Amino acid sequence: MRLYVPRARSGEAAARKRPEEHELALSGLMTRDGLAALQRTAGNQAVTRFVQRCGGKPGQGVEGSEEDLPVQRAVTWANGAVHEVNNLAKCVITGAAVGVTWPSLNGTQFWSEAAVRGALAKPTIKTQAAGGGGFDAEVEAIGNNTGSFDETVLAKGPWRHKAGKAAVRAVVPALAKDLAGAGDTTFRALGDPTDDHMFKANRRHEDKHATDHKAAFDATIGAWDAKLVQAKAAGTKFHGATANDATAALWAAMGGTPDEIASAFLTACVNAVVAYHGTAAGGPVGAPTGPGASSGGTVSWARYKNPS
Fold it and tell me: Superkingdom, according to UniProt (predicted)?
């Protein structure tokens, strides 16, 4: 998910302001409220803390031949792209994301229910009248689904960004005296204890999200696909009074409708993000420490520590 840079406050840390819905959506504040907001709105705004942000169990098997059936899997996981492009110093000043890892399905990156449902390749279900009355439904074709991720992380340091002194004072108030007045300063964001530690910790954090996205994919779409493949190979028919009833019986045996499975994938991704962010290693990056500036304020700096 996303990682943001804090706007430090002088003195004791002030209590966090409760984010508005537009701040929750896609901001990486992945609480239950954040998920709800995420599904209702789009976009992203910087938050005031430097925080790293960005299924169900398989059901019963389908009865068929007692012998093992040949299974042609229709789901795959592809290693995603990793973009080492972000500038920590610029992110500190602008509030841009330092790290973000999107789950993707069939090439569509998503953090909304509509997006993941639209991306899922759905199976074709055939229904026909049954000889004894009612209708039968069976799996006719299975769509191929490929899960992946897209990860954006820090470039290797050093990280510098030229900005107005006022902009730096806003995010590192302890530099108010050193950066008094107008003019520019070249701000240096230092990793604590080293730039290399910050670079690698940021990558570890986002790699963990990528690993969790794969686990979510396997537990939801992967498990669903396995049941569809077995049902198709066995020619299993699901009966109902109407064609819709028969189709509903089929989806129930598979573990859910396409929309339900897509939503389960999203939910599993979000739950994993929340769980990781609740650990010491996955928690927030600290506020700036050790601020300083050269005589006249042409150069300034502060340190940032990543626990991952």
Answer: Bacteria
CB 2 within 8 A of CB 52: yes
Cβ-contact 90, 98 below 8 angstroms: no
CA 28 – CA 97 distance, rounded (Å): 9
The answer, yes or no, to whether residue 49 has pLDDT greater than 90, is no
- Tell me if 304 sits within 8 A of 192, measured CB to CB: yes
Q: What is the pTM of this model?
A: 0.77
- Is residue 92 one of the residues assigned to a domain? yes
Looking at residue 127, its pLDDT comes to 98
Number of independent structural domains in the chain: 1
| Domain extent at residue 90 | 21-52+73-305
For residue 247, pLDDT beyond 50: yes
119 within a domain of the structure (yes/no): yes
How, if at all, do strands 184-192 and 299-305 pair?
Answer: parallel
CA gap 210, 208 in Å, rounded: 5
Q: DSSP letter for 106, please.
A: T
Concatenate the DSSP letters of all residues of 273-300 into one string.
Answer: HHHHHTSTTTSPPPPPEEEEE-GGGSEE
Per-residue confidence band for 33, with pLDDT thresholds at 50, 70 and 90: very low
Beta-strand runs (E) in the chain:
75-77, 81-86, 100-105, 108-109, 124-129, 135-141, 145-154, 159-164, 184-192, 238-240, 289-293, 299-305
The 3-state DSSP class for residue 219 equals: helix
**Residue 165 belongs to a domain:** yes
Check pLDDT > 80 for residue 136: yes
Round to whole Å and give the CA distance between 254 and 258: 10
Please give the pLDDT value at position 3.
Answer: 52
For the chain, give percent helix, strand, coil, nearest 5.
35, 25, 40
CA distance 224 to 233: 14
- 3-state secondary structure (DSSP) of residue 103: strand
